[in-house]
C-alpha cells in the first residue's frame, strides 16, 4: 500500500486543528512544525487502526446493500408454470 499523502491545503487544515486543540486543551502553544510532527506520528503509529476500521465499516455497508439487492432480485422472479 502506498503512503497516504495529503494536499498542502489538507495538511494546513490538520495543522491548524492540532494547534487549536493543544492550545485549548493543554494551554500550550505549539508551532506548525511541532503540529505536523504530531500528525505524522499519529498517522504512522495509529493510522492503521482508523484505516482498518474504515475498511470494516465499508465492508459492513457493502454486505448490507448486497443483501438488499439479493432481495430485490428475488422479487423480480416470475412464477414458473
> How many H/I helical runs?
2
The radius of gyration is: 22 Å
Quaternary organization: single chain
Q: Which structural category do the helix and sheet elements fall into?
A: mainly alpha
Give start-end ranges of low-pLDDT stretches. Answer: none
Number of domains: 1
In N-to-C order, the SSE pattern is HH
Record field, number of beta strands: 0
Pfam families: DUF2164
Protein name: DUF2164 domain-containing protein
Walkthrough of the structure:
It is a single chain. The protein is mainly alpha-helical and 81 residues long. The protein has one domain (8-76). Helices cover 79% and strands 0% of the residues. It has two helices and no strands. Helix 1 (8-26) crosses helix 2 (32-76). The radius of gyration is 22 Å and the shape is rod-shaped. The model has no long low-confidence stretch (mean pLDDT 94).
How is the secondary structure organized here?
Elements: H1 8-26, H2 32-76
Organism: Pseudohalioglobus lutimaris
Pfam families: DUF2164 (PF09932)
Protein name: DUF2164 domain-containing protein
Structure in a nutshell:
This protein has 81 residues and is mostly helical. It contains two helices and no strands.
Features:
mainly alpha; 81 residues
